[in-house]
Amino acid sequence: MPSLFGLERDKDVEALRELLATSDNPMVRKRAAEILGNLDETGDEEIETLVAAVQNDEDEAVRAASIDALTQLEAIDALLTALGRNVPEESANWAKAETFVSDLTADAPELRMAAANVLGQIGSENAVRPLMSALDDRDPRVRARAARALGQIGEPTAAGALANRLHGEPLPVRREAADALGHLGGDDALEGLLTIVDADSEELRRTAATSLGRFGDERPIDALVDLLGDESDLVRRSAVFSLIEILSNVDSEKSDDLRQSIVERMSASDDPSIVQSLAEIVEEGTQLHQRRNAVCMLGRVAGEQSKKTAGESLINVLDDEDQLIQQFAATSLAEIGGRSVETALLHTIDEATSTDAIAMAAFTLGKVGSDRAKRRLERLVDDTESEEVRRKAFSAMSKLGGGGQDFGGLDF
């Protein structure tokens, strides 16, 4: 049998169903249920297997994971049936919300968990007070799901109640409360999160770092900068992602000063995980402003241990569809400088198929190149059929003392 990771990667629904139904290991059954809940495509057989786990599995963690999976799959009617509840004839969300609000005080903890899950999914504001009351439920599984639901609804008045669950609770409850506070925002949520940035639990500190990045303003900056010195690589990386997210949302008048402050702290650590996190944002990010910020910062924070990672990431976006990213990448490569960057740029000129990449590599060599770069640029001017490449090469040669006509390059 392949690993659970392999089954998840391959979306092997049949094998996951079999594990959930027959494995002797409750941890395996729990993880199989979680994966089924995260898959995009599931059919009736998968729903039936999850229903059977809710009804019959002897392990409470497996039952809870199966309830979560059915909720994520929006199989609400099946979930109700599994828990012995009648399906409301009225299919509107308000009718379902009324049903599940009453179930928050049901005898069976599985039904109370399901109620909290569905109320969060529906997003009914009328459920906020009942869910806040459910934070006092005797079962920590219910408390955790009530906290998650309050985060999904996003009602700021729940912040105080959630902050009270950040301490003295089992870790799953504390983690869900911390995550929910990041979705709520506001002063109360921020104050609560700041009390756990030095928590003993690495997982809780990481959740706090992620949640602080959702605030969209500069208030959490100091705490996140402090987390750049955390002993955990995962916490440090979460702090980097959050700092970039905040920089992408603050007013432009403030962003330069904030960026400089953050860069100074990142540079002082010479931590490869910080550069790796920035590189991931550059390569995999979906928000343009975040990618631009990461590109800008890479060249300024890359220390001796991480120049190669930073350089490779920047070389790869010299032909990005966003021209500002191209320009920022050239500037960052010049910030790194050195023979290794020059070599990588020369390799790009020799091997790249993109005219944009060759042109920007040539232009950047004007900032970091030596005599060997000048010689290669001279050949490039003679060989290229692209006027843009020729223009950038002339500009670079002028900067290197090659006597070519200076066409001005790019405006930075």
TrEMBL record:
Name of this protein: Phycocyanin alpha phycocyanobilin lyase
PANTHER family: DEOXYHYPUSINE HYDROXYLASE, PBS LYASE HEAT-LIKE PROTEIN
One Pfam family cited in the UniProt record for this chain: HEAT_PBS
Keywords: Lyase
Record's function text: Catalyzes the hydroxylation of the N(6)-(4-aminobutyl)-L-lysine intermediate produced by deoxyhypusine synthase/DHPS on a critical lysine of the eukaryotic translation initiation factor 5A/eIF-5A. This is the second step of the post-translational modification of that lysine into an unusual amino acid residue named hypusine. Hypusination is unique to mature eIF-5A factor and is essential for its function.
Record flagged with keyword Lyase: yes
Organism: Halanaeroarchaeum sulfurireducens
InterPro entries tied to this protein: ARM-like, ARM-type_fold, HEAT_type_2, PBS_lyase_HEAT
One MF annotation (Gene Ontology) recorded for this entry: oxidoreductase activity
The UniProt record lists the keyword Lyase: yes
